[in-house]
Design a protein that fits this description.
The structure is a homodimer. Chain A is elongated and about 75 Å long. In chain A, strands 2-1-3-4-5 form a five-stranded parallel beta sheet, sandwiched between helices. Chain A contains nine helices and five strands; from the N terminus they run βαβαβαβαβααααα. The first copy, chain A, has helices spanning about 15-25, 40-45, 65-75, 90-95, 110-140, 145-155, 165-170, 175-190, 195-205, and strands at about 5-10, 30-35, 50-55, 80-85, 100-105. The first copy, chain A, folds into two domains: about 5-130, Response regulator (Rossmann fold, 3-Layer(aba) Sandwich); about 145-205, Winged helix-like DNA-binding domain superfamily/Winged helix DNA-binding domain (Arc Repressor Mutant, subunit A, Orthogonal Bundle), CATH 1.10.10.10. The first copy, chain A, is α/β, with parallel strands linked by helices. The model of chain A has no long low-confidence stretch (mean pLDDT about 90). Chain A binds a DNA duplex (30 and 30 nucleotides) through helix 6 and helix 8.
DNA sequence: GACTACCTAGGTAGTTTTGCCTATGGGTCC
DNA sequence: GGACCCATAGGCAAAACTACCTAGGTAGTC
């Protein structure tokens, strides 16, 4: 999906902080891109870019928390490190509970930020790897016909009674037809056993409502 | 494991707060037990008691964060709601990152605490349900012999090549012996198919290092 | 009308699993 | 020595799965 190197996005309304942060991070080998407002970031960023976000909490217009909420609403899961000059406890708690990696108060040591960024990029990398697997499974699953999905769901729901005969009895069709569907399901999902289907379904939550990207 | 009703544990060094909090919470129907220090709580609490912990951050002796760390060290996963009079951002961030449900600054509205407590008790309930399943699987797994564990691991590692013949070839034994072991494994794990074994193993992380209780 | 996709279902043959049985040899425990 | 657990392994038969094949009916599309 992406082979570009990870990037540290900075969003801060203060020009001085933007440039000094950018300079410091570039010097340490990070790939950096800075924005003066949440909107500027939103117009450029696409979720297929690996990286993390260093986000100022207090900004005119859309503030950091609002940007975080907007990213969440769009299902963009980029890891966020908040920085703030005057944030309170309630704000920081809200930010972390909403999934931020960290919340640093200015002034902070550059080392502390570096370490958080490294951790955030690592988190992003792992998430992307997991995401790729899940996306693949979801795509494969979407390619099943309704009947196939139904049968797959029955097999997953009760793996021990997933024999063709059992399912055939429940659906009141021939077990040979179930055989046929099972073969199609495994083929389309690129797997070779019901066990793998069960595994995939629990990892990709094929039959759950929620699917966190 | 437990059928006692969930309890709200309060740990605060301030006698006035303890009694007013206890009174308020009892009036709202919660089962409450209060302690004046982290140590007092630790000597009484056992992890089989369902509930949550309302924890003062700043206390003489062992403070809230230290108690949280100690509970973590002991693998006691009771949900924690911090309350604090003078906590900073760094402390709150640390607490939430370490798994606390919430971090409230005094003074707070009683309603806010109630809502957090309800949420915490819900979290605890779900965790206990999951834990029970995982514990059962872990116990069952522990009852397997070494050879059985080895074969179970091979079956889980590659569900599609988990046929007796495949595994027999890899272990250079008869496929009938593998049949025999497979039957023992399924029996001891209280399941009826390799698919369920794969499922259990991924849910209980039988073959991973970490197992969060 | 031809084409395609899907659900249905059967034939045949080979492979695998499952459940029942027995059995040998190596340990350990009392 | 006897009881017990474990790993090994085979016989046998029923059930299930797998991989190949054909084929009818329905519905939608070009």
């Amino acid at each position: 999906m992406t082979d570009t190197s990870p990037k540290v996005f900075i969003v801060d309304d203060d020009q001085d902080i933007r440039s000094s942060l950018s300079r410091a991070l570039r010097k340490r080998g990070f790939n950096v891109e800075a924005f003066g407002s949440a909107m500027a970031f939103l117009t450029i960023y696409t979720p297929d870019q690996p990286g993390c976000l260093v986000l100022d909490y207090g900004m005119p217009g859309m503030n950091g928390l609002e940007l975080q909420a907007e990213l969440k609403r769009r299902n963009y899961a980029i890891p966020i490190i908040f920085i703030t000059g005057h944030g309170g406890v309630a704000e920081s708690v809200q930010a972390i509970k909403s999934g931020a990696i960290d919340f640093l108060e200015k002034p902070f040591r550059q080392d502390a930020l570096d370490e958080r960024i490294r951790s955030a990029l690592q988190t992003d990398k792992k998430r992307r790897e997991r995401l790729q697997m899940v996306t693949q499974a979801l795509d494969d699953f979407a390619s099943l016909t309704e009947r196939e999905k139904e049968i797959a769901s029955l097999m997953v729901a009760n793996p021990s009674d997933a024999s063709s005969k059992m399912i055939a009895r429940r659906l009141e069709i021939s077990h040979r037809t179930v055989d046929h569907h099972r073969a199609r399901i495994l083929e389309k999902m690129h797997i070779r056993s019901v066990a793998e289907l069960v595994d995939l379904s629990s990892k990709a939550k094929l039959f759950d409502e929620s699917a966190t990207l």
